[in-house]
Amino acid sequence: MLADLDDAAIRERLAHRQPFQVRTSWSITSLDTLLADVRETRSAGHAVNDQETAEGIVCVAAAVPGLPADGRPFAASSSLLKSRATPERVAAAAALIKGVASYDG
b/e per residue, 58-88, with b = 16+ CB within 10 A? Predict the structure, then answer.
């Protein structure tokens, strides 16, 4: 959801929360690193959490466009075991997640 905000808005919201909580040795702990990750997310249209929250787990997510009645944004996601998260599988999962997230049927 941060990818919908510009870098200045993200800095304003999160500057006081640094350093970020460390959950694994891959966790993003600085605002500058987070902003670089958010820029990659904007470019790709989806986010990849590669063991940043839990060791051995890779998560792929995409924001669902539009807001539900309560006005709170949400995303669709899927997790893979790191041992099975080849670049091809992550790309395939991202394509599926983006398809689900944009479904208007």
Answer: bbbbbbbeeeeeeeeeeebbeebeeeebeee
What stretches of the chain show up as alpha helix (H) in DSSP? 7-14, 31-44, 87-102
Q: What are phi and psi of 67, to 5 degrees?
A: -110, 140
CA distance 39 to 30: 14
Instruction: State how far the Cα of 98 lies from the Cα of 5, in Å rounded to an integer.
Output: 19
Structure tokens at 12: 């304003």
Q: What is the pLDDT of residues 31-61, one digit of tens each?
A: 999 999 999 999 999 999 999 999 999 999 9
Q: Going edge to edge, which strands form the sheet with 75-81?
A: 47-50, 57-63, 75-81
